[in-house]
Amino acid sequence: MASELAPLVLGLGGVTCGGKTTVANYLKGQLPKDSLAVIHQDDYYWPEDSSHWNNDGTDNWDELAAFDMDKLIKDVKEKISQKFHYIIIEGIMLYEDTRLEELIDRKYFFILPYEECKNRRVLRAYEPPEPYPEYFDVMYWPVYQQQLELFTHRADIKLVDSTNIIEAIQDAILADIQ
């Protein structure tokens, strides 16, 4: 458990459709509400018409440049200063920006095999919708493969097999942080 002086900052990162938001919402329901803050990286996407990303003419919502990381990091630091016991950050690109990664005490990286990930993603409705049918294969999956190479062998990141039953994943992470 986090000390009275510093919160425990959790990172739920990794694969799209892997259960990160579901786990964050579960933890939100299990931990004292007045001592918990949840930050969803999806809330920090640049607007579609932003000049901050998309400079190559592609619509890639699954890369670090798609997020306003300065604002996300500012908000995390603000939550840390507010003396929460737990801060949960969830999203697909948590460990690519070292400024954010340095703020995270416990790092979890959710993984899925290709077919399961693609099947789950097809079932999800995105707004805006994916720009073309091959988006997953052309844009998302190569980025995730790079993440696997970077993060799956690090001792400070716990891998979460998202093919496991979600309740088991939730209970394991809750037990790990208490």
Task: Describe the secondary-structure layout.
Layout: E1 8-14, H1 20-30, E2 36-40, H2 69-81, E3 86-91, H3 98-101, E4 106-111, H4 114-123, H5 135-151, E5 157-161, H6 166-177
Parallel strand pairs: 1-3, 1-4, 2-3, 4-5
Unreliable segments of 5+ consecutive residues: none
Structural shape: globular
Order of helices and strands: EHEHEHEHHEH
Order of neighbouring strands in the sheet with most strands: 2-3-1-4-5
Rg result: 16 Å
Largest sheet: 5 strands, parallel
- Please name the CATH architecture: 3-Layer(aba) Sandwich
Secondary structure tally, helices: 6
Mean pLDDT: 91
Number of strands: 5
Protein name: NMRK2
Organism: Bugula neritina
InterPro entries: P-loop_NTPase
Short structural description:
This protein has 178 residues and is α/β, with parallel strands linked by helices. The chain contains six helices and five strands.
Describe the protein in words.
It is a single chain. With 178 residues, the protein is of the alpha/beta class. The protein has a single domain (8-177), classed as Rossmann fold. The protein has six helices and five strands; from the N terminus they run βαβαβαβααβα. It has helices at residues 20-30, 69-81, 98-101, 114-123, 135-151, 166-177; strands at 8-14, 36-40, 86-91, 106-111, 157-161. It has a five-stranded parallel β-sheet, sandwiched between helices. Helix 2 links the parallel strand 2 (36-40) and strand 3. Helix 1 packs across helix 6. The protein starts with 7 loop residues before the first strand and ends with a helix. The relative contact order is 0.23. This is NMRK2. It comes from Bugula neritina. InterPro entries: P-loop_NTPase.
